[in-house]
């Protein structure tokens, strides 16, 4: 048996000894030939609602379950917050090696990643102007590790290194690049594998459909749930879901699953750029969720080039009404519809920017905002210039990118430059296609409105209250 498969077997034995129940109708499978690591596959037909496995809460790798939480003051964990606390606990358990309760689990977790955090500068360049590059935050995360995590490890060196004679030196060495890299790996595992674990007795306020608000989900403690995190994801083929029970977390089939089919979780409607950033892979069926961002910097630059200085008062007013943002989503829509693809906030922003001082003062006096569903000729012209400028920020055109068909090589190592470059190309092509559709639609709108010029001026009734154009939901 390969070491990969024996690690899987040892993991399953450990899990069952820990009190987990795993259905005989599924198996943990080696999916490396399709570059998907391990995955869970049905070996017999599975019925809707059937229990796939249940994991005892005590097996979750979490702050609560780690012995470290009994040794380090609660206030320290509270100060660190859920993400850094779990990184601290995972570092502790990982460096404990075989002595850790979760040693067999660590042996099935990957140590190499394709998430953007681990890409070289040259590989990241392939994403060109994609806004996802500004979301990676490697440097700021390094600083967080150095300023928040390291002091805790140094202060609790004896506990963290289990009384080792060289505990202090080892704690100091945690600031070295290879250890910062280890912290990034734990952080990445949490991002790609951890669940927001609802407590046994739910303290969340749920709406009538049983969903908590996103803010409340963010407050939930994070935990690494063995086996539940071995499910790969698919935007269209999600067929299982984790249910939080008092003593167990139960994975159940959401629909009938045929023998041989993979069991998939759902990561939500993520654009491929975010899928790559958080999970290190992309598939075509996430393309409908692609997003091209129009950054405020581009907007300001284009406005200044065409119309002059941005009026601070207008920006303040837009900010007060929740319209000002660091960037605006332009999304894919099928069939394409300009008003579906453009963020309503972006339309409101453009319409306010083009107002004369007199018009703006009138709007302000009435506490109103332009309607996001009716773009004027001047507004469409400005938006058109902005989108053209955004397209020009990418180093190549879609035509250049697609001269050769772009496919992600499969018969290659998991971490490979070729795979990363192909994935980056597909992400940037997706974004450019969205921008091109919007650019064409705006050009047509400018023509159309130009032809009926004179009726393009907003009437006073074309306004409505408050921040009408909320950021589009992904
Ligand atoms: C929660 S884990 C799933 C288990 C993982 N395959 C493993 O072997 O550890 C998430 C990771 O699995 C991989 N993954 C998930 N869904 C995938 C898919 N549909 N195709 C390829 N890789 C996928 C990505 O590397 C992602 O970061």
From TrEMBL:
Source organism superkingdom: Eukaryota
Keyword Cell division: no
Major location category of this protein: nucleus
Region Disordered: start-end pairs: 448-474
Listed GO MF terms: protein-lysine N-methyltransferase activity
UniProt keyword Transferase present: yes
PROSITE patterns: SET
EC class: transferase
Cellular component, GO annotation: nucleus
Domain spans labelled SET: 24-268
Function as written in the Swiss-Prot or TrEMBL entry: S-adenosyl-L-methionine-dependent protein-lysine N-methyltransferase that monomethylates 60S ribosomal protein L42.
Record-given protein name: Ribosomal lysine N-methyltransferase 4
Native source species: Lojkania enalia
